[in-house]
Specification:
Helix content is about 40%, strand content about 15%. With about 350 residues, the protein is α/β, with parallel strands linked by helices. The protein has a seven-stranded parallel beta sheet, sandwiched between helices.
């Protein structure tokens, strides 16, 4: 087991961030400080299973608040900053891009400056082992046709305000490595899914709408393709990269699980048919409807994750079928987590129809 480190996780109450925190508390000896603004998608209920650990701490603050960031870093003195705080929903970015620019770009720059000053003050041994790890998305690469894969060398070509803001933050992280010598690592991941997923993204949204007897809206004809990554596999990858990855390096993380959106929804319906049949005996698939496509909807994403597999020995442990079954089962058995969130949010409302 690795030596205990002090890890500050921004966005640690969000979907991927909370998965990372649960992994770190449950499977490593590390101390963890969660730094989270608790926006609509951040919930302390996602951390209840680890919140009583003596190795867990939480501070509610905004990464755009330079004094709050500096204070948290000074008090906690991290060996690793894992940066996951971000606005992440494409449809929301279409309706309101400014929040994405502020959090994803300005917030990342604020955090980088604070990390740089912290790194410069560390004793030499801790300076050498310090890492700033930035979690990003495959959406920065734009769209693929029916063939090919995104690699670490793929040119950036973002198409939405969300992906453009994440591309900007990626470039800033690399600039702090090249200009200031801040030891950074980056990961660009494919679509995540799994437990504790805020019900505005495709998979959790379809589950809760199906259970509510509502229509299951599929964009266009459902032909768009995504590569799916189980969130606990992603959490393991993040920890592996900031622990063993080369400073200045980027690693793509994917599940090798390409699926058309329509196929994802139809598979969900079949699982629900088995695990919680409708009272009238009909399939949940009868609730599927096709709606106007998202503006600028990228056709296909697919990740080549051979670098992290080859250099660091990472492998996804869940297939799409096994991960999806676990996800559906979790949502069926944890309505106490998502029903209060759904009642207080606009997660079920269609977003991204306007051009800001």
């Amino acid at each position: 087991m690795s030596e205990p480190k002090r890890i500050l996780v921004t966005g640690g109450a969000g979907f991927i961030g909370s998965a990372l925190v649960r992994h770190l508390i449950n499977h490593t000896p590390h101390q963890v400080l969660v730094f989270d603004k608790l926006t609509y998608a951040g919930h302390l209920s996602s951390l209840e299973t680890v919140a009583k650990s003596e190795r867990y701490q939480f501070v509610k603050a905004d990464i755009c608040d330079a004094s709050a960031v500096a204070d948290a870093i000074a008090r906690f003195s991290p060996d690793v900053i894992a940066h996951l705080a971000a606005e992440s929903h494409v449809d929301r970015s279409i309706d309101g891009p400014q929040a994405f620019i502020e959090t994803n770009i300005v917030g990342t720059a604020t955090l980088l400056q604070a990390a740089r000053h912290h790194h410069e003050r560390l004793p030499q041994a801790r300076r050498d082992s310090f890492r700033f790890h930035h979690v990003s998305t495959d959406e920065v690469f734009g769209a693929l046709g029916s063939e090919g894969y995104f690699t670490e060398e793929t040119a950036y070509d973002p198409r939405s305000p969300y992906s453009a803001s994440k591309a900007g933050s990626d470039h800033l992280v690399r600039a702090w490595w090249h200009t200031y010598g801040l030891p950074v690592t980056l990961t660009n991941c494919s679509n995540n899914y799994g437990p504790y997923h805020y019900p505005e993204k495709l998979i959790p949204l379809m589950i809760v709408k199906a259970l509510a007897g509502e229509s299951l809206p599929v964009y266009g004809r459902g032909e768009n393709v995504r590569d799916w990554l189980y969130v606990d596999d992603h959490a393991r990858a993040i920890e592996l990269v900031f622990s063993q990855g080369k400073p200045g390096s980027t690693y793509n993380v994917g599940g090798r699980a390409e699926q058309r959106n329509l196929d994802v929804v139809e598979t969900l319906c079949r699982l629900l048919d088995q695990l919680r049949p409708r009272a009238d005996g009909k399939s949940y698939a009868t609730q599927i409807s096709f709606v106007t496509d998202r503006p600028g909807h990228d056709f296909r994403y697919a990740i080549d994750c051979s670098l992290i597999e080859r250099e660091l020995g990472w492998r996804s442990q869940e297939s799409f079928d096994s991960g999806l079954e676990k996800t559906v089962s979790w949502f069926l058995h944890n309505e106490a987590w998502w029903r209060p969130i759904l009642a207080l949010s606009d997660a079920g409302r269609r977003l991204g129809l306007t051009r800001a």
